[in-house]
Amino acid sequence: MSWLAIAGGGALGSLLRHLVNLALSRRFDGATPYATFVVNVAGCLAIGALAGGVAGGRLRLSATQRAFAFVGVLGVWVPDFLAPVFRKLWHRDHPEGWRGRVSSAWCGLTAHRG
Fold first, then answer.
1. What pTM was estimated for this model as a whole?
2. pLDDT surpasses 90 at 23
3. How far is CA 97 from CA 43, 55, 58, 106, 108, in A?
4. What is the pLDDT of residue 26?
5. b vs e for 22-54, b when ≥16 Cβ sit within 10 Å of the residue's Cβ?
6. 113: pLDDT strictly greater than 80
């Protein structure tokens, strides 16, 4: 069932990313790197906030919900080099899960401070 959540989240995330690209290209009269920058930073911030909530126990998500949010929606919002982090976040009980959550939170905090 998680593959449906990932597919639905991926479709939603792709559509949202495309809408941001369109909006920023209209704003700046053409293709610019700003859309990629905005989407990547927003994705890192969202992952940092969500991962912090899950790790801190303030946000309870089932495995399917984590798959939808982290792998599906946010998976298309961030650079490919963060894909291993999402896989570890998706599997909350993974032995390296804490390292993945800390890495993601660090990316979000770094982007926020930037």
1. 0.64
2. no
3. 19, 10, 17, 14, 17
4. 85
5. eebeeeeeeeeeebeebbbbbbbbbbbbbbbeb
6. no
* Cα–Cα dist 32/42, whole Å: 17
Q: Hey, what are 15's tokens?
A: 């559509």
Q: Report the pLDDT averaged over residues 97-102.
A: 57
**Residue that has been written with the tokens 């899950």 in this structure:** 54
CA–CA dist 70, 87 (Å, integer): 8
Q: Does residue 12 contact residue 73 with C-beta atoms inside 8 Å?
A: yes
Query: Could you tell me the pLDDT band of residue 64, with boundaries at 50, 70 and 90?
Result: very high
> Rounded distance, CA 48 to CA 29, Å?
32
Write out the H or E segment, with its range, that includes residue 94.
none
Q: Which of 113, 110, 98 is nearest to 56 (CA)?
A: 98
Closest Cα partner for 51 from 76, 79, 36, 71? 71
Both tokens of 99, joined, read 């390292």
Residues contacting residue 69 through CB under 8 Å, at least 6 positions apart: 9, 50, 61
